[in-house]
Design goal:
Elements lengths: L2 H7 L6 E5 L12 E12 L15 H12 L4 H7 L5 E8 L2 E10 L4 E8 L2 H15 L3 E7 L3 H9 L3 E10 L11 E3 L7
Parallel strand pairs: 5-6
Antiparallel strand pairs: 1-7, 2-6, 2-7, 3-4, 4-5, 5-8
Length: 192
């Protein structure tokens, strides 16, 4: 491993990278430490009935606040574009006028990908997950979960998800403290 390249690329306070589990030995000499693990699961899903909670532009401020709490920092512009991208569906869960979770599903090269799937609890996550499945009308669905959230693991098992691969999130500084219990699906493997 070229450590000069690593050292010169670390000009920010804290960066994160993903490591594939089978390549974990290659990262031993780097300044990155393990943050958390995630896995990608997929399944062929049948059409499911669920309530359809679509997102509206008027709720972007509420979504932004929820996303910042789950993701760890402000990504207002990104989220505004992400939730309304073409060939995608975005869903919210509101209870007593308070946002309790949201999910986005988008067209991928093969099937669809869910991400993020952030929710206050497993029941809300499942309802949002079912809305995402309904959006696809039975096509392949991929979900990148945080393996340290046992409820995300159980959700994918309940719907017969197939484990594809595992990797770990690594940081060259202190790993951010995130509400892992609310993260049922990361936004994207490439974006965290």
């Amino acid at each position: 491993m070229n450590m000069d390249l690593w050292d010169s690329s670390l000009c920010v306070l804290n960066t994160g990278i993903w490591e594939l589990a089978q390549n974990s030995g290659e990262y031993a000499e780097t300044p990155y430490g393990k943050g958390y693990c995630r896995g990608q699961l997929s399944a062929w899903m049948e059409y499911l009935q669920c309530c359809h909670f679509t997102l509206e532009v008027a709720l972007l401020e509420m979504i932004h606040g929820y996303d910042t709490a789950c993701f760890g920092f402000d990504r207002r512009k990104f989220i505004a574009d992400w939730v309304f991208q073409s060939e995608a569906g975005a869903f919210k869960y509101i209870d007593n006028l308070k946002l309790k979770g949201y999910a986005v599903i988008r067209k991928a090269r093969i099937g669809y990908k869910i991400g993020p799937l952030f929710a206050d609890n497993p029941d809300i996550a499942e309802e949002l997950f079912r809305c995402c499945l309904k959006f696809t009308s039975g096509q392949n669905v991929f979900l990148d979960i945080t393996l340290s959230n046992i409820h995300a693991v159980l959700l994918t098992r309940k719907y017969s998800g197939t484990f594809m691969f595992e990797c770990g999130r690594m940081y060259n500084g202190k790993a951010p403290i995130l509400p892992i219990h609310k993260i049922f699906g990361i936004t994207s493997f490439e974006l965290g």
